[in-house]
Amino acid sequence: MVSELGLGGHEYRRPLPTTLSKWGEIDMETFVATQPMRNEIVKRAIGAGINYFDVTHMEEVMSLGNALKSLGIEREKIYIAAMIVFPFRKMGENPRSKWADIIKGEMERILNTLHAKYIDVFNLHFPENNYSREKFSVFMSVVAEAREEGKVRWVGASSHEPRFLAELIRRHDCFDVIMVRYNYYLQEAKDVLFPLCRMMEIGVVTMKPFCWPYYGIPFIKFGPVEGEEGSPYAPAQLCLKWILKAPEVSTVVPSMNSLNELEENLDAISKEGKIDEKILCKYLKAATGPEAKEKLKKMMSDPNIDIRFFAERVLSEMEAS
Question: Which CATH superfamily is domain 9-275 in?
Answer without folding.
Answer: NADP-dependent oxidoreductase domain (3.20.20.100)
